[in-house]
Amino acid sequence: MSRQFRNFREFYPYYLSEHSKPGTRALHFIGTLVVFFAIAMAILERHARWLWLAPVGGYGLAWIGHFIVEKNRPATFKHPLYSLAGDFRMFFDILTGRLPR
């Protein structure tokens, strides 16, 4: 049975607990960079050929982190929207040095 969350504020600590290892967080961070890069290139070049890289790079690296490093299942399977928001929030928390330890 899937755990229920009333809002993203409740979900985010759970999300971080599912991403507790530095390797998992690093792979998610790099994957999110790939997503931003792919979108930026598609806009700059005005060509959608870059967009395939966003889900492949983003999910690919994140899932390597979960299945190989963290050894758990991605929260995306049960909480897709909160997980997407959590990924971006964790990215910016890492970038700004505000990620809770």
Number of strands: 0
Number of H/I helices: 4
Q: Ranges with pLDDT <50 over ≥5 residues?
A: none
Distance between the termini: 28 Å
Radius of gyration: 14 Å
Integer average pLDDT = 94
The helical percent reads 55-70%
Strand content: under 5%
Report the sheet with the most strands, covering strand number, pairing sense and barrel closure.
Answer: none
Structural class: mainly alpha
H/E topology pattern = HHHH
Structural shape = globular
Describe the structure.
- The protein is globular and about 40 Å long.
- 68% of the residues lie in helices and 0% in strands.
- The chain has 101 residues and is mainly α.
- The chain has helices at residues 8-17, 22-45, 53-70, 80-96.
- The mean pLDDT is 94.
Write a concise keyword list for the protein shown above.
101 residues; mainly alpha
Give a short overview:
The protein is mainly α and 101 residues long. The protein has helices at residues 8-17, 22-45, 53-70, 80-96. 68% of the residues lie in helices and 0% in strands.
